[in-house]
């Protein structure tokens, strides 16, 4: 909802008092948006609230604390810009928080989202989750400041910026605007944590119950519950402190850096930097980058694993196009080769006197990439499961039922002339019995055990709520390289262009090629490898090429090479001068055009050469047509269809009369001579086919996302059994034809791939999407470009059908992977994603269930982290998810039934002014219910992943019928026992007395014994066989608990009153007939239900 204005007067600030601001939706990040409701508080109504809080002894204050939206709805008034006091922030989950509004003015225009904040005016702003949100009084919209634009303005407005930097006054102003470059966390004290824990509704209800039980003389029971609550609070405080310590360890300490200010270099700590600062990096700065910045000159290598999860270091080079458009597009691109991110570590810095390494700070503090990561940890996007929502609804129903019970019991006791205090105690006691405060918390029991079992299998869980979601995954998306296939690649063979302009295979690169062939020079020169601490690191493909062709870095001084612009010097291992090449310029790999190039100069006084290497289609586009081999297209299709990864290379000599350092990339990369192909092999992991088979049999749709070609991806899909029962795959014929799809009536060329015969069949092209959708025996393989076009052109029904058909997605960029995940979620699919590198981070973060095969800090965004880096862990996670759903659901059912059992027994006793005693309540809760609850939560998942998925709702008809039948049996058994005891022993039972409840008589003893047996019987019926859990007999803890507790309870039924157990539990002497009736009512109905239901 956009800002709307009513009664808008003139543009004068004095008239803004009559401007009424309505709600506005503000996007804070790609994943987070909020609705803002500005208002001013009515002093009269606020006073009424204060009086109510005082009169209610603070209870009303607690209510307002838990439900702040109630305060807003009561006290808020429409307001203008001048009198705004508070902003209600409503997040995507509907949670409301109140933020106080402050005001400030600026002496110069400050860039904001698509606008500028005006000067000399009072600007309202508030703090929300470590961000400052301002109200633009000129456009009447809430905005975030744009520090990137401000940094560019500071750079562009000063011609001598690289020499002067910022002055002291500007730094002071910038620090006031954006704050210090600090990831400052408010340290939680034990008192503050304790305050928030104690004020939780669960603990307050426990406190209320304890006080009530103390008034009713249940001293020992009350003390036990109180001590358990204290232990729970202690562990909550301990976990909160440990979480704070983990976040502080990620933030780390600040290092010193060289900054240019006031025309001179200064040594400053990283937390003293501001937006627009000019940082001068030196070769010794092997530190952690303190800000997000754009490289203005020089080059460096950084470890971005903390940010992206990519294990391969990234090379960063200076941004040449310093226009505003280029500056901002790079600043917003997390994968830009010109942007440094806060939290990444410098591995190598190439800074020389003639070309220093300068970085301009564009984002600081919580606005930086590292700051966003810390914000994600501080304020995680909690996902509320359907089970939890249903449990809260169930709890509300129980509250309503308890109110009716309280009303009936109070009226009954009043008619029997009970004391007022007795009526209050008994009525409130019913509430504490029928409403277990820990009811919603029981849903976390299965999750807690699943987390423990996953940790035993070396799987870390960063988002526990995702465990239950994993049990109902509809689609699982897998990255290809490093996930389905091995991460390590090896050079299988090379092809070079022969004298007949055809590609000819070289079985062994070193034996087939001449020592100084072009393809050898391209292999050792056209790369971005670096030497760090004596080891060569970089892209696995480049490492493989460099090793096969015996590449070696050498020091230029060894051969008396003193080129001014030399980046590095390499040789192919030969001792002659002709084998030495010095690279003077590097055109870094661009993920859009999918290639890189270098300018290399030989040591033999020959003209410089341009070497290029990249995707075959990309290299083809810059080569002279007459140099393209005649068998190129056929060979490329054959190699790709066999699963090989193919790179092409080309070259051309350069003229020496041009400035090779300044000439544009477009002018360099044209009319090249095609040289050959590098063919790489990445073997499929042994466990991949079995994992795909299991998921297919479980009816979980599988999709493979890859940056490779369609043919390579289809081959990998077939070899890893992705296609399952699909006999045919419609494979997009031309990977570029996606650009021509403009409407839903357009048709695309497809090839039909026969999965079983491993061959392509002729098809009548073009094939309509309706034909593919209606073919139940076929799957689809498309590119990211076609997916993008289809999402724009097709209606939702067709697009949903296409998604369910698509098994292979090739040529997928990180943004397109993210887009596919979002499309799946848009159609209400539970999406799982399994990946291992930087290209997967965005998709991992947005998926419902994400499994990372990398353990870097960036993968904190993933729900699960596989320390073994095994794809089989996806199966384990799904199995544990299903187990946690069923276990939590069963624990919830048992807690509800336990409340029904105790309620039915006590309620019928209350009607005769009887009650259980202190020791009996203790025995029921701590000797029966608690051990059985703990034991039943230790069921482990089934070994097999079945095609069925567990229900995610508590209000399923069969579940409600099951609970209704159990409740009926429980209440009927208790009622029959009361009828029997009263009819056959009415003279021996104490008569109604208006005073204290009687706790020692035959009816109380029989009801107590029956209640204990019902606890066991209900537990056994609830924990009958499930396809999602291991058989009951395998849970030794549960079986042992049931046997021991069952024997003890049966043994108590036949004890005499003189035995110490009977004395402690106040069990009176009972006739043998009573004992058999109790056993019959407590066992036979549940044995029947166990075998019938």
Number of helices: 37
Bin the strand percentage: 15-25%
**Category from helices, strands and their pairing:** alpha+beta
Backbone CA Rg: 36 Å
Quaternary state of this entry equals single chain
Shape: globular
Largest sheet: 11 strands, mixed
Distance between the termini: 51 Å
Portion of residues within helices: 40-55%
Biggest sheet, spatial arrangement of strands: 21-42-41-40-22-34-39-38-35-36-37
Number of strands: 42
Mean of pLDDT: 82
Unreliable parts: 1-18, 509-515, 736-745
GO molecular function: ATP binding; ATP hydrolysis activity; ATPase-coupled monoatomic cation transmembrane transporter activity; metal ion binding; P-type transmembrane transporter activity
EC number: 7.2.2.-
Protein name: Cation-transporting ATPase
Keywords: ATP-binding, Magnesium, Membrane, Metal-binding, Nucleotide-binding, Translocase, Transmembrane, Transmembrane helix
How would you describe the overall organization of this protein?
This protein is of the alpha+beta class and 1093 residues long. The protein is 42% helix and 19% strand. The strands form eight sheets. Strands 21-42-41-40-22-34-39-38-35-36-37 form an eleven-stranded mixed sheet, with helices on both faces. The relative contact order is 0.07. Residues 255-376 form the P-type ATPase A domain. The chain crosses the membrane at residues 46-67, 193-212, 218-237, 393-414, 922-940, 960-981, 1002-1022, 1038-1060, 1072-1092. It is an enzyme of class 7 (translocase).
């Amino acid at each position: 909802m956009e800002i709307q204005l009513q009664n808008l007067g003139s543009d004068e600030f004095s008239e803004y008092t009559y401007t009424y601001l309505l709600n506005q939706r503000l996007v804070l990040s790609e994943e987070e948006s909020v609705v803002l409701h500005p208002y001013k508080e009515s002093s009269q109504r606020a006073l009424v609230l204060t009086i109510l809080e005082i009169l209610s002894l603070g209870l009303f204050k607690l209510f307002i604390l838990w439900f702040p939206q109630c305060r807003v709805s009561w006290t808020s008034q429409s307001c203008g810009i001048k009198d705004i006091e508070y902003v209600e922030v409503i997040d995507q989950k509907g949670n409301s928080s109140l933020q106080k509004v402050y005001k400030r003015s600026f002496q110069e225009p400050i860039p904001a989202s698509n606008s500028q904040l005006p000067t000399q005016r009072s600007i309202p702003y508030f703090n929300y989750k470590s961000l400052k949100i301002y109200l633009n009084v000129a456009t009447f919209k809430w905005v975030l400041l744009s520090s990137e634009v401000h940094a560019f303005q500071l750079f562009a407005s000063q011609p001598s910026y690289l020499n002067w930097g910022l002055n002291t006054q500007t730094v002071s102003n910038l620090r006031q605007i954006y704050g210090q470059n600090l990831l400052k966390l408010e340290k939680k004290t034990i008192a503050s944590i304790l305050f928030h824990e104690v004020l939780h509704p669960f603990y307050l209800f426990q406190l209320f119950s304890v006080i009530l039980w103390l008034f009713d003389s249940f001293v020992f029971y009350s003390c036990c519950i109180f001590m358990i609550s204290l232990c729970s609070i202690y562990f909550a405080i301990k976990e909160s402190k440990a979480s704070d310590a983990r976040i502080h360890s990620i933030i780390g300490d600040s290092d010193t850096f060289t900054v240019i200010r006031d025309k001179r270099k200064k040594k400053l700590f990283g937390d003293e930097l501001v937006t627009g600062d000019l940082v001068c990096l030196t070769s010794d700065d092997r530190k952690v980058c303190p800000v997000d910045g754009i490289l203005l000159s020089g080059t460096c290598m950084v470890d971005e694993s903390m940010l992206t999860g990519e294990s391969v270091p990234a090379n960063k080079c200076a941004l040449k196009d310093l226009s505003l458009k280029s500056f901002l597009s790079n600043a917003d691109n997390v994968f830009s080769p010109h942007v440094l991110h806060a939290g990444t570590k410098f591995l190598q810095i190439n800074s020389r006197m003639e070309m220093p390494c300068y970085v301009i700070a564009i984002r600081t503090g919580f606005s930086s990439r590292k700051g966003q990561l810390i914000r994600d940890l501080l304020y995680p996007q909690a996902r509320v499961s359907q089970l939890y929502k249903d449990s809260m609804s169930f709890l509300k129903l129980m509250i309503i039922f308890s109110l009716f019970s309280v009303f009936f019991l109070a009226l009954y006791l009043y008619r029997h002339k009970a004391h007022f205090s007795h009526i209050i105690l008994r009525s409130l006691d019913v509430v504490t019995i029928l409403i277990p405060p820990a009811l919603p918390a029981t849903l976390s029991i299965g999750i807690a055990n699943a987390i423990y079992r996953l940790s035993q299998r070396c799987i870390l869980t960063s988002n526990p709520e995702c465990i239950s979601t994993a049990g109902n995954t509809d689609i699982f998306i897998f990255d290809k390289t490093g996930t389905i296939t091995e991460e390590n690649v090896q050079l299988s063979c090379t092809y070079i262009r022969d004298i007949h302009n055809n590609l000819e295979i070289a079985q062994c690169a070193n034996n087939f090629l001449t020592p100084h062939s072009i393809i050898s020079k391209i292999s050792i020169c056209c790369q971005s490898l670096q030497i760090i601490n004596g080891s060569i690191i970089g892209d696995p493909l480049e490492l493989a090429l460099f090793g096969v062709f015996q590449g070696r870095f050498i020091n230029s001084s060894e051969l008396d090479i003193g080129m001014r612009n030399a980046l590095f010097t390499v040789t192919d291992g030969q001792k002659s001068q002709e084998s030495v090449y010095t690279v003077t310029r590097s055109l870094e790999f661009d993920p859009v055009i999918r290639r890189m190039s270098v300018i290399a100069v030989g040591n033999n006084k020959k003209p410089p050469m341009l070497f290029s290497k990249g995707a075959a289609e990309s290299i083809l586009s810059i080569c002279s047509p007459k140099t393209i081999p005649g068998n190129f297209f056929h060979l490329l299709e054959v190699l790709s269809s066999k699963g090989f990864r193919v790179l092409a290379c080309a070259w051309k000599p350069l003229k020496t009369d041009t400035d090779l350092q300044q000439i544009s990339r477009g002018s360099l990369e044209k009319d090249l001579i095609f040289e050959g192909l590098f063919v790489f092999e990445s073997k499929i992991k042994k466990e991949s086919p079995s994992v795909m088979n299991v998921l297919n049999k479980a009816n979980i749709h599988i999709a493979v996302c890859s940056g490779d070609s369609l043919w390579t991806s289809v081959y990998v899909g077939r070899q890893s059994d992705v296609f399952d029962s699909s006999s045919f795959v419609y494979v997009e014929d031309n990977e570029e034809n996606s650009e021509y799809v403009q409407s839903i009536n357009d048709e695309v060329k497809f090839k039909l791939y026969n999965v079983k015969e491993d061959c392509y069949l002729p098809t009548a092209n073009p094939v309509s999407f309706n034909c593919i959708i209606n073919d139940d025996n076929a799957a689809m393989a498309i590119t990211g470009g076609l997916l993008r076009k289809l999402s724009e052109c097709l209606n939702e029904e067709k697009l949903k059908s296409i998604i369910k058909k698509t098994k292979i997605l090739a040529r997928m960029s990180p943004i397109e992977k993210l887009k596919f995940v979002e499309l799946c979620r848009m159609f209400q699919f539970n999406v799982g994603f399994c990946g291992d590198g930087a290209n997967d981070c965005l998709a991992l973060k947005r998926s419902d269930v994400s499994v990372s095969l990398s353990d870097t800090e960036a993968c904190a965004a993933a729900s699960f982290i596989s320390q073994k880096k095994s794809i089989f862990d996806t199966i384990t996670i799904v199995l544990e998810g299903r187990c946690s759903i069923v276990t939590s659901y069963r624990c919830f059912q048992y807690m509800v039934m336990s409340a029904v059992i105790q309620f039915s027994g006590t309620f019928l006793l209350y009607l005769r002014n009887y009650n259980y005693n202190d020791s009996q309540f203790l025995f029921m809760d701590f000797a029966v219910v608690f051990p059985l609850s703990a034991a039943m939560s230790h069921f482990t998942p089934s070994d097999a992943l079945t095609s069925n998925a567990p229900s995610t709702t508590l209000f399923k008809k069969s579940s409600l019928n099951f609970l209704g039948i159990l409740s009926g049996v429980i209440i009927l058994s208790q009622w029959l026992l009361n009828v029997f005891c009263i009819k056959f022993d009415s003279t021996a039972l104490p008569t109604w007395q208006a005073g204290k409840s009687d706790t020692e008589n035959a009816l109380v003893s029989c009801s107590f014994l029956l209640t204990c047996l019902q606890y066991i019987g209900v537990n056994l019926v609830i924990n009958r066989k499930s396809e999602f859990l291991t058989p009951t007999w395998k849970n030794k803890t549960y079986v042992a608990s049931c046997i021991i507790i069952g024997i003890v309870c049966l043994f108590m039924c036949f004890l005499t009153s003189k035995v110490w157990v009977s004395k402690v539990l106040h069990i009176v002497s009972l006739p043998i007939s009573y004992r058999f009736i109790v056993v019959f009512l407590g066992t036979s109905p549940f044995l029947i239900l166990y075998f019938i239901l």
